[in-house]
Design goal:
alpha/beta; three-stranded parallel β-sheet; 7 helices; 19% helix
């Protein structure tokens, strides 16, 4: 009984590694001379003195029995302590002087279960990993940082053979600059708590094997320049909080990506800083193999187009001539065989006014995540993937399209054949058609269309064949027309059962 109580008190006095403030209390047990003598002292104070009193009053048999039992029990516990210490080695370092060859060899030979760091690095020589940077392959042990450690910059700098890092507690850390810089063998970034981090410049710079990055919580992050530069295998980056960034602080965070925020910078359109993985096309020469590969793989969150990338065929233009122009200018036509579900947001600069035939050739298109169309005036045949003279308006529709995102169409004038032939659509979003002048064939041959939100047209418009052959309509669409405008409505509901 004495040994058990003494053991518990020993753990409470020598075991806890207490982290100050809000950090949680963790227990790590280590056999040290201090702990051993504490154990003996507790036994002496609590039990040997009472036993001496017992002998004084001649409780010889009882005292002898208790002392023998205590001695045997203590011997067993001490043996168990040393066995546990040998099986669960824990290394603590309090300064550079504690970085011994034995410690470095233990790390390299995977004989460390836990490394407790109790001081802040000021120089590279203070970092134990600096001495074995070119030999370190895995961090398979637990790393525990004391409350004194706030800066992990260059923590694993130039560990070129490091393949994996076991996640460890990084709460309270404010600086992770160059933490994994040039870790060329690192494949997956570890889970880290970045809730207090303000600086992350070059954090993963040169991690050429890096393939995935977890979702980091970064409410206090103010700078992350060159954070993912030369991460050549990295295909996507989860969005994280960058609301504290200043202009240009996020430029070149990854190769071929530029991010802007706030008011217009370098005469660019305002872009959400929370989208850090983007492709920006300023001219047709930007349709490089790398950008097209990223669009094809869907490994981005935002596509920005700042030039005229699409148009309708010219009156005397042959189809081959038209498709040659589209091949040179339209990114979707270039990857048309791979366009099915567009999972990134599409934005256009104010210089783009027409989306006519935007998805020409995209016969597999099923859905679009989001598309910003503010200021666009021409939506004609936007979803017409193929020229077909036998069709009602000369083009087939995206027959596999099943979902259309909300679009800002308040500036739109030409909606001719916008959804014509999209036979997979069952409904469409509410569209602002107040300024429309041509709605002819807008929903023609949408044979699965069941319902259409109320439509309001306030100008003179051509509405001929607008709902022609929409055979699945359950009710006649509500169309509100301005009394003073003249509307052409010939064949507006032909083939629907509402044309009488």
């Amino acid at each position: 009984m004495s040994a058990v109580i003494a053991f518990v008190i020993f753990l409470l006095l020598t075991g806890p590694s207490v982290k100050k403030g809000w950090r949680e209390q963790r227990f790590s047990y280590n056999i040290t001379f201090r702990g051993f003598f504490t154990y003996c002292f507790v036994n002496f104070v609590l039990f040997f003195i009472p036993m001496a009193v017992a002998f004084r009053f001649e409780f010889d048999d009882f005292g002898s029995m208790v002392v023998k039992a205590m001695a045997a029990t203590n011997a067993v516990f001490i043996l168990l302590f040393f066995i546990y210490a040998s099986l669960r080695p824990i290394h603590r370092i309090y300064s550079r002087q504690d970085i011994s060859p034995n410690l470095l060899n233990a790390i390299l030979n995977h004989k460390v279960r836990k490394l407790c760091i109790h001081y802040q690095f000021k120089y590279l020589d203070d970092n134990p990993f600096h001495y074995i940077a070119d030999q370190l392959t895995d961090i398979d042990f637990e790393i525990e940082l004391s409350w004194k450690v706030k800066d992990l910059s260059c923590f694993f700098l130039d560990c070129v053979n490091l393949k994996s890092v076991r996640p460890f507690d990084t709460r309270g850390i404010t600086n992770m600059t160059s933490m994994f810089q040039n870790c060329r063998s690192l494949v997956n970034a570890p889970e880290l708590d970045m809730s207090d981090v303000t600086l992350a410049d070059r954090m993963f710079y040169g991690c050429t094997s890096l393939e995935s990055v977890p979702q980091y919580n970064t409410p206090k992050l103010t700078r992350a320049q060159s954070m993912f530069i030369n991460c050549t295998r990295l295909r996507s980056i989860p969005r994280f909080d960058t609301h504290l960034f200043r202009p240009n602080d996020l430029l070149d965070i990854v190769n071929n990506v530029r991010i802007y925020a706030g008011d217009s910078i370098s005469k660019k359109q305002r872009i959400d800083w929370n989208l850090i993985n983007a492709v920006e096309l300023n001219k047709k020469e930007d349709l490089t193999d790398e950008n097209l590969r990223r669009l094809r793989n869907g490994s981005i969150e935002l596509l920005i187009i700042n030039y005229r990338c699409t148009r309708a065929p010219l009156p005397d233009e042959t189809i081959s001539e038209y498709e040659k122009w589209m091949r040179e200018n339209n990114p979707f036509f270039r990857i048309r065989e791979y366009v099915d579900d567009i999972r990134y947001k599409i934005e256009f600069s104010s210089s783009v006014s027409s989306l006519s035939h935007l998805f020409y050739g995209c016969i597999h298109l099923r859905s679009i995540k989001s598309i910003e169309t503010k200021g666009i005036t021409d939506f004609s045949f936007m979803f017409a993937p193929r020229h077909d003279p036998e069709k009602l308006f000369g083009f087939t529709g995206c027959s596999r399209l099943v979902r259309v995102p909300d679009m800002n169409t308040s500036s739109g004038k030409n909606f001719r054949g916008m959804f014509a032939g999209c036979s997979g659509l069952s409904t469409v979003p509410n569209l602002d058609l107040g300024n429309a002048s041509d709605l002819s064939g807008m929903f023609a041959s949408c044979s699965s269309l069941i319902t259409v939100p109320p439509i309001r047209v306030f100008k003179s418009a051509n509405m001929e064949g607008m709902f022609a052959d929409c055979t699945a309509l359950l009710t006649k669409p509500s169309v509100e027309k301005y009394a003073g405008a003249e509307q052409k409505t010939g064949g507006m509901f032909s083939g629907t059962g509402f044309d009488g």
